[in-house]
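B., you asked whether I could sanity-check this one before it goes into the benchmark set. Here's the sequence:
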Amino acid sequence: MTAGIDALALMADLATTMDDIVRVIEQETEMVRAGRLSEAGKLEGVKTDLANRYYAGAGFLKTLPPALTPAQSQALGDLKRKHEEFRALLQINLTVLATAHAVSEGIMRGVSDELARKASPSTYGASGRTNAPSASAAPPLAVSRVL
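And here's what the prediction gave me:
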């Protein structure tokens, strides 16, 4: 097999890997949006494997000679377009994940604040208003990830 054919085959493999990553990220995004976080978490191993394949393929692209055949140039152009679409999808995925993280953090802070409020005695300050619970009065909050 010549170097030109090898390059085209590896670019085709990279394109397939990108398609697979896009499919998994779209699944993850939909699962997180639907609140199925444990199912989305199961995709982590698949995403890691695909990301490793992607980075290996992207590393290969850096080794290509500056003078490409027309077929290689076309395949490289297709990969660049596919990569831009991938980046846009990844940005949406990261936004969804950040939103889910912020919401869950807000819920956990609310639960912690409520536990602290209930655990501390209600006292009145010099102004006659109730004192806010002190941060040291808050009991530790433990979360079990096993369902």
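One thing to flag: Helices lie at 3-33, 37-41, 44-61, 70-119. Otherwise nothing jumped out at me.
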